[in-house]
Amino acid sequence: MYKYKRQQNQVVFKYTLANVNLRDRKSTEGGVIEVIPSGSKVQVVDGEEDWYEVIHNGKRGFVYSEYLSKTKYTWTDTSLRPFADSSTNPIADIPAKSRVQVLNVSGNWSRVIYNDQEGYIFNTFLTDDGNPPEGYDLTYFYTDMLRFVNDNNIKSPTKNLIATDLTNKLTYVFEKDENNKWVQLYKWSSSVGKPSTPTITGTFYINGRKPYFGSDTYRVKYATRIRGSYYYHSILFNAEGTEIIDDTLGEAISHGCIRLALENARWIYENILDTTTVVIN
Fold first, then answer.
1. CB-based contacts of 137-145 (< 8 A; 24+ apart in sequence)
2. Cα–Cα distance, 44 to 5 (Å, whole number)
3. Strand residue runs (E) in 81-159
4. Max CA separation in the chain (angstroms)
5. What angle do CA 215, 260, 169 make, to 5 degrees?
6. Other beta carbons within 10 Å of 212
7. In what order do the strands lie in the sheet with 170-176?
8. In principle, which of 51, 161, 171, 184 could form an S-S bond with 26, CB 3.0–4.6 Å?
9. Cα angle: 235, vertex 276, 119; to 5 degrees
10. In tens digits, what is the pLDDT along the chain, a chain of 281 residues?
C-alpha cells in the first residue's frame, strides 16, 4: 500500500477541490469536525492511499484524497502562465524539481498552484518524481523523422515542433494537423557542433531570441535560443552583418549552435513561439 510521508522538517500543503468534510477518523462514517470550503489550503500531516490527515484553521482531521489537489514536480525549468496558452506572458518562473499542486488537467495543460499562485503548466513539464520522462524510441529518428515524432507521440506546448538530426545534419519543422498529428513543414540542411564543441542532445524548449549576436570577427542573425548559449541561427556574416563569410551547411563545424540558411533561421525566429519543443539527437 502506498503511504505518503513528509520529508523531515518540510511542510506540505494541498488544496481542496470541492467543499469537503474534515472528519475525526478515516471513514465516510466519521464525525464531521467542519466543512472545508473549496479552494482552501490545508497542511498535510500524513496520508495513506485514500485519506490524508490535515490541519485547517487549527483543526486536525481527515479528508478523502480525491478531494485534494495532486502533487507533481517540474523536471525542468518552466513558467507558470495565466492561461493554457504558450503565447501568454508568464506570471512566475518555476525551477526544476519544484513541487506544484495540480487542481485539474484539461488536454495538454494542468491548472496548478505554485507558491500560492494559480496558473497553468504544460503537462509534459510535470512528472511524479521530478525526473525527466522516459526516453524516446529512436528506431526511425535517422531515417523517417515524421514517423519518429508521431510514433513517440511527442508533445509540444505550441502548434510546432522542431527536431534536429546531428548525424545527418538536418533540421525538421512540424505542425499539428486537425487530428493532432504532426505534419512536416520543412526539412533543412544544417551545420552542427564540431567534435570538440558538440551540440547538446535531448529535449528542450525554445526560450528567447536575439536579432543577432557575434564578435569583432563575425555576426549571426535571427538567433532563437534552444537552451543557455545554444541557438538556431543563420550562417556566418562579417562583424558588420553586411557580407556572408561562411555559408557552409551540412557539416560539423560550429561551437555548438545549429546553423541554418538565412531564410530558414529567420522563419524560426519569426514563427516559432517560446516553449516550443525541440528534440536533438
1. 138/281, 141/165, 141/281, 142/167, 142/168, 145/170, 145/172, 145/184, 145/187
2. 10
3. 92-94, 99-106, 109-114, 117-122, 126-127
4. 80
5. 120
6. 13
7. 182-189, 170-176, 160-165, 277-280, 202-205
8. 51
9. 145
10. 334 444 445 788 999 999 999 999 888 999 999 999 999 999 999 876 578 899 999 999 999 988 999 989 999 999 999 999 999 999 999 999 999 999 999 999 999 999 999 999 999 999 888 878 778 899 999 999 999 999 999 999 999 999 999 999 999 999 999 999 999 999 999 999 999 889 999 898 999 999 999 888 899 999 999 988 889 999 999 999 999 999 999 999 999 999 999 999 999 999 999 999 999 99
Q: Is 135 exposed, middle or buried (0-12, 13-18, 19+ CB in 10 A)?
A: exposed
Q: pTM above the 0.70 mark?
A: yes
Quick one: cell of 81?
502562465
Question: Which amino acid is residue 11, in one-letter code?
Answer: V
